[in-house]
Request: fold
Amino acid sequence: MRESYAIHSSRRQVGVIDAWSAAEAVIEYLRSRGFGNEDIVRLGTNAASWRGAVFTATKLDGDES
Reply:
């Protein structure tokens, strides 16, 4: 089931993405911003880096979306 994930850069929330997993959410967010796959580095199950900036995804509760 797809869930809503908040995308963060440092402590700032920069977006919300619906995805199957946190990993997919953070990658899809970066791709939606026009960042190419060659510049995206996966850092784990909920994080990725783009040119040194780290982005993380956390699942939103139903009340937050």
Remarks:
- The two ends are 16 Å apart (CA to CA).
- The chain has a mean pLDDT of 92.
- The beta strands are 3-9, 12-19, 40-42, 47-50, 53-59.
- The longest strand covers residues 12-19.
